[in-house]
Amino acid sequence: MNSAVNFNSAETLRLLYELSAQLATAIDLQTTLEQVITLTVRFLNTERGSLVVLDENNQPIDAAMINNGKMQFNNAAQFAAIVKHGLIAWVIEHRQAAFLNDTSVDPRWLKRMDDQPDQTGAKSAMCIPLEARDQLVGILTIVHPTPNQFSLEQFEFLKAVADQAGIAVHNALLFDSLETMHRQYFELFQDSIAAILITNRDGIILQANRSAYQMLAKNDSALAGSSIFDLHQAPYQLLGENFERLLTEDIVTYESLISMENSDDLPVKMFVRMMPRDLEGRIQWIIEDISESKQLETMRHDLLSMVYHDIRSPLSNVISSLELLKMMMPEDLDPNVDDVFSVISRSANRIQRLVSNLLDIDRLEMRQEIMDAQAVDINTLIETAISDVQPIMESRNQDFSLEMVDPVSELWVDEDMIRRVMINLLENASKYSPVGGKVSFRIEKDGEKSILFTVEDNGPGIPPDKLDMIFEKFTRVNYRKGPKGIGLGLAFCKMAVNAHGGRIWVKSDNESGAKFHFTLPTEAHESFQVAI
Predict the structure, then answer these.
(1) β strands within 222-338, DSSP E
(2) What is the pTM of this model?
(3) Pairing, β 399-404 against β 438-445
(4) Would 3 be classed as within a structural domain?
(5) At 436, which helix (H) or strand (E)?
(6) Whether pLDDT at 177 is above 90
(7) Can you give the residue range of the structural domain that contains 145?
(8) Does a structural domain hold residue 101?
């Protein structure tokens, strides 16, 4: 036998150490395959070898082979048939190493044209499975051009090589997979239409995609290394100190303004999150340009304000004219005419309240403070509210009760706004109570500086899953046989009560009516900030 080395224990350890040192420098799969094949062929003093890499279904995904010193890669396609037949197929099926002294007499060897006696003829072969973590990752095959050229010591040596090679191939596959994922992420990152910034936990910008450069009108030198906090004012109460909120929240969203060098500040919506499975704790900032939506919102606000004011002015003239006309009517007026006049007057007043509510909703959404708050006599306020709703309840033959549990004299509120809150709630209670039903209004102290109001009906009730949403704009609960509306009345009530520093909520069991509770202050609030 012509062997390059004597495979005693010391020499085997030396060769395995050399192989280990070489594989330690190999990270990617192609380099790993080249190192394993080249060194193994040299150690065994042969000329031909191959290493086929397999996936979890034992299908070839990559391969390398060497013949007379010439290395070839990416031959997985030509191995597709071999892994189903011949020696490699047998090793895959049995997960065992194969030792062939003479390929011409072993049925496991797949015969090729050059195996004919008049060509290269019979050969020697060893075929070893490469495993890592109980997974078959490849097949290493070494061939000598003549029979009986491999010893059992060499066979055992090749098994030891396979142990190291299996782990190296497995790690290289993981590395290539990670590299592929990184490449795909980078391509998605760069091609995303959303502007994306990546920062560290100190807010220093590490990366930006093309959309970010275009949106911010900055180049790489101006953006990379700068602070995200120089671009905009971040809400620390949402993000937490050192971004601690991002450790428990999937994503934090808020609106802000981006400082632009050559133009006005840019309104944006920020989506902030800790990058998943990132040991360095990097943070992803997705920036959405909302300047167009803000412009549309401003246009909508201006248009609605114009419409509401244009309606309010002639409506006030109508109401004033009705009051003047009422004063001019003779005392012996036909009762039917008087009833019709009352209907017209109440309808006009109701339209005026609706327009005022819409104007207040628009103003409160703009976070404007309550400007007309003052000490208001609670009895007068309640009387005027009830007087507007009383005709509706009388027409429905409903029983109304007013209960003043504790003696209360004053509230500190915007009188007109809170009067409309009471009217809205009382009208709702009447609308949703059946003909002949009951409506009650209860007033009691809620601590030293607050009053609790309760409006109760005996209507169909509110489904439990709708209790939180009925105060949202344009939200209508589909009551059983209940009246319809546009869903602004309760939204106005919530905004108005919250703006006064109070709160409003509802209780209902979906069977026996609803109880609307709201609180209002008896003394001047420090600042009637709108809390919508």
Answers:
(1) 252-258, 266-274, 283-289
(2) 0.48
(3) parallel
(4) no
(5) none
(6) no
(7) 9-183
(8) yes
